[in-house]
Amino acid sequence: MLYFNSNNIPELQGLNFGQRMEVIRATADKLPAPTKVALNTLKLVIIFFLFILVARADGWAMLGYALLIAPLYLLITRPITFALCQSRFSTVRRQLFAQENTPQVGN
Questions:
Q1: DSSP string, 10-29
Q2: Which ranges in 1-107 belong to alpha helices (H)?
Q3: Angle at CA 82, nearest 5°, toward 34 and 14?
Q4: How far, in Å, CA of 57 to CA of 37, rounded?
Q5: Environment class of residue 49 by beta-carbon count within 10 Å: exposed (0-12), middle (13-18) or buried (19+)?
Q6: How do the pLDDT tens digits run along the chain, 107 residues long?
Q7: 54-80: buried (b, 16+ CB within 10 Å) or exposed (e) per residue?
Q8: Rounded to the nearest 5°, which phi and psi values hold at 2?
């Protein structure tokens, strides 16, 4: 299933926005190298074509395309990133927040 918002990802339920982003970033960092390369290449291709639309536009259309670049880029790439990371969210969440919940030995 594709998720467009991190609120909807079952593995991240109960976390606030900052915690969800921390889990997503840590999970994306732990992706295997070939997956990271493929994901970043896909993102580069998408942003390339969006910028080509802006470069080929005339007049006010250029402004319209320029204003649409960021939302379109995120709308396309976030679900792909979430899908590639979803199988590891639970593990990374346990690793990150088990460290915070572990009592520290006082000196």
A1: GGGTT--HHHHHHHHHHHHH
A2: 17-29, 33-56, 60-85, 89-101
A3: 135
A4: 30
A5: exposed
A6: 788 888 889 898 888 999 999 999 999 999 999 999 999 999 999 889 888 888 888 888 888 888 888 888 888 899 999 999 999 998 999 988 876 665 555 55
A7: beeeeeeeeeebeeeeeebeeeeebee
A8: -90, 135
